[in-house]
Amino acid sequence: MLNDRQIRTIMRSRVTPWNNDLLQPASLEVTLGDEYQELMSVSLVIGRDVAQYEQHKLPYLLLPDQFILCHTIETFTMPHNIAGKFEGKSSLGRLGLMTHITAGFIDPGFHGQLTLEVKNVGPCALELNPGIKIGQIAFFEVETVDRPYGSDGLNSHYQNSIGVRGYEN
What residue ranges define each of the domains in the chain, with the CATH number in brackets? Predict the structure, then answer.
């Protein structure tokens, strides 16, 4: 796992915008973008999966048991020897906000903003505003990969993501 000095050295030019105030001892905090998507319908049929979303602007009052997709302000350009792991902030988790449910891994070679799966499992409505610290990324050095995210044949749906990206199969 990279420490703060390593994160600053390796990732400073690969995270846009860079903000030194978001650097923690072994992670980089990330902030919430200005859009969200609400899942309206899903049809999962082999070879014909369809998910429909409505896109909106934040702020948003996330009710208990409600689920939306959001994105980070930060754009990441992962080197071919660095992987990332998104984790929620404990302060938000203690309010019942889950900020990633399954999609917390950032592959070497990924480029784009992160789409976050956000669910309120608490008893109170939570107001989500653009720019709040929504999570943190821990970075890990790996051997340089042969086929980074986005390589031909990998079916990397979310390469070059800007804004919220819903389900793609």
Answer: 4-41+52-141 (2.70.40.10)
